[in-house]
């Protein structure tokens, strides 16, 4: 098995570092469920991840008003973080110039419920395939996985399967996939999605959603068979959870030894 990489995250909402239940975003009739609001800046976390030599972490801007905090994190750890949320062909390069290793996109390329190849090719032209991460965050419908967009409120017609992943991989350097139905709930991973992604992906792919203990992490590693990396948010001690951040870092650095 390949070494399991822990990919940390800095989620930004209203300019602050937060952990929220992502599926509660974007609904006019529903308040956003916040698991944690940090008293620390985005730079504080970027410095921590740099010190622990964690690469490929992602800074996600959840709505507008988070650009300043995102730029602060990127400048603190240049080359060590990816950035997503509101990325398009016009603004992508400025984030690369600011220190992001990659930009992460979903809604810009999954436009009006469909994969927009024109927009995808514009992005590849703007920053290069080597700087692009495609986020295929998905939910199950009728026994199949479909990409959801617009703060995870809308189903696209893009089914996530072996063929579609093989196709989309040709446009990007990495994949990021949130299991939307379990993300932020600290209630266990979506094992069937982990199993599917391990079978289907051939480029670096990070799974997010529900991992909340070292036992979970071991189970994830066993199911993924070394094929996937993992991000953990709300469950981590640095974000108000019970799972010690240092334990996760050490577990992954030691190649999965509890």
TrEMBL record:
<keyword id="KW-0413">Isomerase</keyword>
<comment type="similarity">
    <text>Belongs to the HisA/HisF family.</text>
</comment>
<dbReference type="GO" id="GO:0003949">
    <property type="term" value="F:1-(5-phosphoribosyl)-5-[(5-phosphoribosylamino)methylideneamino]imidazole-4-carboxamide isomerase activity"/>
</dbReference>
<dbReference type="InterPro" id="IPR013785">
    <property type="entry name" value="Aldolase_TIM"/>
</dbReference>
<dbReference type="InterPro" id="IPR006062">
    <property type="entry name" value="His_biosynth"/>
</dbReference>
<dbReference type="InterPro" id="IPR011858">
    <property type="entry name" value="His6/HISN3"/>
</dbReference>
<dbReference type="InterPro" id="IPR011060">
    <property type="entry name" value="RibuloseP-bd_barrel"/>
</dbReference>
<dbReference type="InterPro" id="IPR044524">
    <property type="entry name" value="Isoase_HisA-like"/>
</dbReference>
<protein>
    <submittedName>
        <fullName>Phosphoribosylformimino-5-aminoimidazole carboxamide ribotide isomerase</fullName>
        <ecNumber>5.3.1.16</ecNumber>
    </submittedName>
</protein>
<keyword id="KW-0028">Amino-acid biosynthesis</keyword>
<dbReference type="Pfam" id="PF00977">
    <property type="entry name" value="His_biosynth"/>
</dbReference>
<comment type="pathway">
    <text>Amino-acid biosynthesis.</text>
</comment>
<keyword id="KW-0368">Histidine biosynthesis</keyword>
């Amino acid at each position: 098995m390949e070494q399991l990489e822990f990919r940390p995250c800095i989620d930004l909402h209203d300019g602050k570092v937060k952990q929220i239940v992502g599926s509660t975003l974007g609904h006019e009739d529903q308040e956003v469920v916040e698991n944690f609001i940090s008293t620390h800046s985005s730079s504080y976390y970027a410095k921590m991840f740099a010190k622990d030599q964690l690469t490929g972490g992602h800074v996600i801007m959840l709505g507008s008003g988070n650009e300043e905090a995102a730029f602060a994190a990127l400048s603190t750890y240049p080359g060590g973080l990816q950035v997503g949320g509101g990325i398009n062909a016009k603004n992508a390069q400025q984030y690369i110039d600011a220190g992001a290793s990659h930009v992460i996109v979903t809604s810009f390329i999954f436009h009006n419920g469909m994969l927009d190849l024109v927009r995808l090719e514009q992005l590849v032209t703007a920053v290069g395939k080597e700087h692009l991460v495609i986020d295929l965050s998905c939910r199950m419908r009728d026994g199949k996985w479909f990409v959801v967009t617009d703060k995870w409120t809308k189903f696209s017609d893009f089914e996530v399967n072996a063929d579609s992943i093989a196709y989309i991989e040709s446009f990007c350097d990495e994949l990021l996939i949130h299991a939307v139905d379990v993300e932020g709930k600290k209630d266990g991973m979506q094992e069937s999605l982990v199993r599917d992604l391990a079978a289907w992906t051939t480029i670096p792919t990070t799974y997010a959603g529900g991992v909340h203990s070292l036992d979970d992490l071991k189970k994830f590693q066993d199911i993924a068979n070394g094929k996937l990396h993992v991000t953990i948010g709300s469950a981590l001690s640095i974000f108000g959870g019970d799972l010690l951040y240092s334990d996760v870092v050490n577990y992954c650095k030691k190649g999965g030894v509890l």
